[in-house]
Design brief:
The protein has about 70 residues and is mostly helical. About 55% of the residues lie in helices and about 0% in strands. It has one domain. It is elongated. This is Cro/C1-type helix-turn-helix DNA-binding protein. InterPro entries: Lambda_DNA-bd_dom_sf.
Length: about 70
């Protein structure tokens, strides 16, 4: 599982959410959700697909390095 998938999985677990509930909201099976979280190239779009279904989203910012 990559870092982003781990963050999403951690969010799910920390909020007491069930995978069946999320899978239903996303419109996929529990097994498909499990496979999505463990796919090799899990990305921001995948994360937002899951998180949007439960009222969250990934946000990120590109900013200059402080030297």
């Amino acid at each position: 599982m990559n870092q982003l998938a781990l963050l999403v999985d951690e969010h799910i677990n920390n909020h007491g959410l069930k995978y069946n509930y999320i899978a239903d909201k996303v419109g996929i099976s529990r097994q498909a959700l499990y496979n999505l979280l463990r796919k090799k190239n899990f990305n921001i779009d995948d994360a937002n697909r899951i998180l949007t279904a439960i009222g969250y989203q990934i946000s990120y910012e590109i900013k200059p390095l402080e030297l």
